[in-house]
Automatic annotation (TrEMBL):
Gene: jg6830
Lineage: Eukaryota, Metazoa, Ecdysozoa, Arthropoda, Hexapoda
Coiled coil: none
Protein name: Large ribosomal subunit protein uL10m
Record keyword Magnesium present: no
Protein family per UniProt: Belongs to the universal ribosomal protein uL10 family.
Record key words, sorted: Ribonucleoprotein, Ribosomal protein
Organism from which the protein derives: Pararge aegeria aegeria
GO terms under cellular component: ribonucleoprotein complex; ribosome
Length: 263
């Protein structure tokens, strides 16, 4: 075998070629497969749904698919927190909504203590808890301010100036809006409200203004009478004194002034 391999030249390509079809394959109009193969092709044929541009937006949203058909679980602890939140809304005449930036608990603890010392309470509630608490109440409009967990300050309106003074030390806590005596106010309105004097001071200022106006009116009403009385007293004193040329001149002046007062 070795001798034959040396004597004969070895071919680089095989002498026999296998072909599946004798003629050319018609790509444009291929021949139909037999019945068994056609069944296999029909079974394994992929199914493509309608294109995306024909689908509604709710079907294309992957998040909606995850939440669609999910049952809401009744959590008793959430109902307890919602009742507590609604109680804070009903008992507090000042409610301040804060936007919280990145802040550590170590920096937030002194603020919490300072607010509590001034009869203000800082609480953290999520959007779901606030929605459960304010649903069907007059505070339902505040749900637009919540996107996630946010801080809320509950207190009384007379402590608004102290609250701004405390929050000035922490720029991470930003005031968005607030409710004072059942009125929703912006941050600028809250700043103006904090600069107003207290109720007792405003009452004392009003009383002083009313008293000054009343005393001024009484003085104006009694002015003519006082002038008339002073002139009469002087006229009597002149009549009782001995008559001189100076007294006559004074009497004439007094008669003229009396006539002017009477007119």
């Amino acid at each position: 075998m070795a001798l034959t391999n040396r004597a004969l030249l070895q071919t680089s390509a095989p002498l026999l070629f296998t072909r599946r079809f004798r003629g050319k394959i018609n790509v444009q109009k291929p021949r139909k497969p037999h019945f068994g193969r056609q069944i296999l092709i029909d079974i394994s044929k992929p199914f493509f749904g309608p294109p995306k541009y024909m689908l509604p937006e709710i079907v294309k949203c992957e998040k909606a698919k995850d939440t669609f058909g999910r049952k809401e679980i009744d959590n008793p602890f959430e109902r307890i927190l919602a009742n507590e939140c609604l109680n804070w809304f009903n008992t507090s005449k000042m409610v301040i909504f804060l936007h919280v930036n990145s802040i550590s608990m170590e920096d937030q603890t002194p603020i919490f203590a300072a607010l509590k010392k001034n009869d203000m309470h800082l609480r953290t509630y999520g959007k779901k808890i606030v929605g459960m608490a304010t649903k069907g109440t007059r505070y339902e409009a505040v749900n637009q301010l919540f996107t996630s967990h946010q801080n809320i300050i509950f207190g009384q309106p007379e402590n608004a100036a102290k609250m701004f003074k405390i929050l000035k030390k922490t720029p991470q806590l930003v005031i968005m809006a607030g409710i004072i005596q059942d009125k929703l106010l912006s941050k600028n309105d809250l700043v103006e409200f904090s600069k107003l004097p207290s109720l007792d001071l405003a009452r004392s200022q009003l009383c002083s203004v009313l008293q000054s106006a009343g005393s001024c009116l009484v003085g104006q009403l009694n002015q003519n009478q006082q002038i008339l009385v002073s002139h009469l007293e002087k006229h009597i004193s002149i009549q009782n004194s001995p008559i001189t040329e100076d007294n006559k001149a004074d009497a004439k002046v007094e008669d003229k002034t009396d006539a002017n007062v009477e007119s």
